[in-house]
Write a structure and sequence with these properties.
Order of helices and strands: EHEHEHEHHEH
Radius of gyration: 16 Å
Number of helices: 6
Helix content: 40-55%
CATH topology: Rossmann fold
Structural class: alpha/beta
Largest sheet: 5 strands, parallel
Strand content: 15-25%
CATH class: Alpha Beta
Number of strands: 5
Shape: globular
Distance between the termini: 37 Å
Length: 138
Amino acid sequence: MKALITGITGQDGYFLSQLLLQKGYEVYGVVRRNSSKSLGTLSLLPEDVRREIRLLEGDVTDTGFMNRMVSEIKPDEFYHLAAQSFVAYSFANPSATYDTNIGGTLNAVNTMPRTRLYFTASSEMFGRSEGWLENGRV
């Protein structure tokens, strides 16, 4: 089985990649291009485990990249975890946040022919929810 993970350098990608490797999956992960070549939380993995993950440098907002990557890999499962998740940055740069969180997700959905897609989101997108709980609403 082949699994593709966008957002693999974050916390959830770190744990998911290990779980899938333990289950015998071929794991592919999208790493956003950056000048420092940072691997985020993946840098905490032992080198032998990290080498088992096939990393692809690209951007979820790049439709051409997403289409090429999915057609070449032909994943059985696609875990879309990539997002701009820093709240302060999202207010300072709403357009970039929209492009990544909405456009990137649209690219993920549109590239999947017959593959299971798992998409995650953050409770941060709902803002302050205290009022909902006080009024007995969930």
